[in-house]
Amino acid sequence: MPARSIDHADIVESSPNEERSLEALSVAFTHGVLKPQLVGPDDRPLDLPTSLYAVLRDAVGILLRGQAVMISSLDRRLSTTEAGDLLGVSRQYLTRLIDDGQLACEFTGRHRRVRLRDLLDFRDRRDAARMEALNAMTAGAAAAGEYD
What we know:
Elements: H1 19-30, E1 37-39, E2 45-47, H2 50-64, E3 77-79, H3 80-87, H4 91-99, E4 106-108, E5 111-115, H5 116-143
Antiparallel strand pairs: 1-2, 3-5, 4-5
Helix pairs in contact: 1-2, 3-4
């Protein structure tokens, strides 16, 4: 399946007139519904799987904060430009990470594609290493009396 780029149609933003509905949903989600359901077109209840309920709950919170939401498969293949944008790095730097073996990719012809799952795993590893280094620096500074 060819990689499909992320475009504006993938992003959902709420409008100001939806805020009241979002707030009502947020209240309903925080009261811990035991058996979440939707009402079908024939007015019969449809049980929501726990995973979908969690996605909807999180999406409501994000939209209430005025942010946009995008739901995507973790198997989605991203171009190096899209992957770099999501990491906040240049395409060239991302390509270097791939060439150095730090980030997995697949080739579609001559083009590299990065699975969203691999990109998020890399980001989590990178962020954990950064936090570990920061904690070590802070502990070193504290031991040297720089926080007295």
